[in-house]
Amino acid sequence: MSAAPDADITVIGNTGDDIHLFGLKVCPDLDTVMYTLGGGIHEEQGWGRAGETFAVKEELAAYGVGPEWFGLGDRDFATHIVRTQMLGAGYPLSAVTEALCARWQPGVRLLPMTDDRVETHVLIDDPEGEGRKAVHFQEYWVRLRASVPAHAVVPVGADQAKPAPGVLEAIADADVVLFPPSNPVVSVGTILAVPGVREAIADAGVPVVGLSPIVGDAPVRGMADKVLTAVGVESTADAVAKHYGSGLLDGWLVDTVDAGVVEEVEAAGIRCRAIPLMMTDLKATAAMAAEALTLAEEVRG
Amino acid sequence: MSAAPDADITVIGNTGDDIHLFGLKVCPDLDTVMYTLGGGIHEEQGWGRAGETFAVKEELAAYGVGPEWFGLGDRDFATHIVRTQMLGAGYPLSAVTEALCARWQPGVRLLPMTDDRVETHVLIDDPEGEGRKAVHFQEYWVRLRASVPAHAVVPVGADQAKPAPGVLEAIADADVVLFPPSNPVVSVGTILAVPGVREAIADAGVPVVGLSPIVGDAPVRGMADKVLTAVGVESTADAVAKHYGSGLLDGWLVDTVDAGVVEEVEAAGIRCRAIPLMMTDLKATAAMAAEALTLAEEVRG
């Protein structure tokens, strides 16, 4: 937003890692965007609310009700309570998200990729036994800390999902489409798995520019390398670009430490620039966004 | 329990003042019994949990989600979250209550009067306009502090409700049935409105003894006089006894300040004693229970 203060920005959020906990609908990705842009995020942690207390979680544990591995704070609970109540009253997730954002004023239009239920499951080696089993992404990611081999990532329900109201329209009306340096498999990949989204991006006829989530052969944040392995993609800045492919991606930003891959990415038909890609502060992040827009204009030619 | 430490006690709780708040099922009477006997009650307040914080409530208010007049604390929220999740999973309220009591160990068997939905509504003078309207009991009691004239009290759904599993059996197996000094209209009265309960008490063939909730022409606690007026009963210790009637009640305890009504109650066919009836501490409360059991034995003859 700092890079283009007058722009109308729509953020399409992944809902594949949504989960029902304690009977409440939790949307980690939507909430992280909402809290971050709305000024309520726990900055160091990168998710959840600042200044949290944990009375509800402690009480649930006293009742023996789990899971205990998902750290919901009291303030965060309120968001999930409001969301669950509205969903129960019949509002689609997109309308609920809009209502929640009315408080947070994130400065962008935040849309869930779909109002339909999609749940990313991960096929893992069963940590408690022989063989493999499929677990909810959050169980793999948060409970197991991605510490067991993952063999497949399946966005269950995505093939039947419809893009939420406004998603295809936002893409069709866009001047530029940006892929953030998010997880290419379980975040961006899940959004692209909703039928119609990938096609809409390709048909929009506007520059599509991505920022590499891999810097120096390791994910900037999180454990993206684990799920990249599961889908057979190397954890390198160029492999991720080629995973998206030139059919989708027009431009790609890699970090200066990965300047060596620029030529290879360009050989794959994707314009590539090496710039500092660490979101150390707001200024650095705005500079990255500005570079992405510059690259988009280059592509547009 | 102190008055009869070896007794198996079943408490049948009113569920007519249950309410859905923020999409969660709240059972004030069941929880008050559970928290009180389980050692978690806010002693001075007489409801809710001790040591509460209010982060969730503050956040809900920040979302503009009400009602704000019902003071749920963070700890209390956890109880309602567990209950709502279990109900959503298909467990009846009686099973949910048993599960919650597994933590609290109240020392009695706590049963909801019914697993079916019953909601006590109160017909009031509309505080914001002309005419009358029906509101949920909690709105009348908590929001309006019973400050507007009430014309009728209707336990909506009670006529279709079935006693919860164990209720009729507990009454049939009882040696004594006690009516606590609770609200005779919206607490005890609602339980009696569930078809089969009143008959089971009459058919049990055991002493039925009540404790007056009115001391010196005023309710001991709360605003019972308001709803007594609504059903055409005077707020006196003898009027409440006659409201229950000799067909139901065998014995009645009034406070010493109401010793003057003993004769009149006995003339109505209900054995009556005047004893100190203020539950000032555990010892005084145990003495009241002991007197009730003594009166029951007198009645049994």
Automatic annotation (TrEMBL), chains A, B:
EC numbers: 2.7.8.28
A GO BP entry: F420-0 metabolic process
Cofactor(s) needed: Mg(2+)
Pathway the protein contributes to: Cofactor biosynthesis; coenzyme F420 biosynthesis
Ranges annotated as spanning the membrane: none
Naturally occurring in which organism (per UniProt): Streptomyces malaysiensis
PANTHER family, sorted: 2-PHOSPHO-L-LACTATE TRANSFERASE
InterPro entries: CofD, CofD-like_dom_sf, FbiA/CofD
Domain of life: Bacteria
Pfam families: CofD
Subunit structure and binding partners: Homodimer.
Family: Belongs to the CofD family.
NCBIfam families: F420_cofD (TIGR01819)
Catalytic reaction(s) noted: enolpyruvoyl-2-diphospho-5'-guanosine + 7,8-didemethyl-8-hydroxy-5-deazariboflavin = dehydro coenzyme F420-0 + GMP + H(+)
Enzyme class: transferase
Keywords, in A-Z order: Magnesium, Transferase
Annotated residues for binding of 7,8-didemethyl-8-hydroxy-5-deazariboflavin: 31
Its job: Catalyzes the transfer of the phosphoenolpyruvate moiety from enoylpyruvoyl-2-diphospho-5'-guanosine (EPPG) to 7,8-didemethyl-8-hydroxy-5-deazariboflavin (FO) with the formation of dehydro coenzyme F420-0 and GMP.
Protein's name in the database: Phosphoenolpyruvate transferase
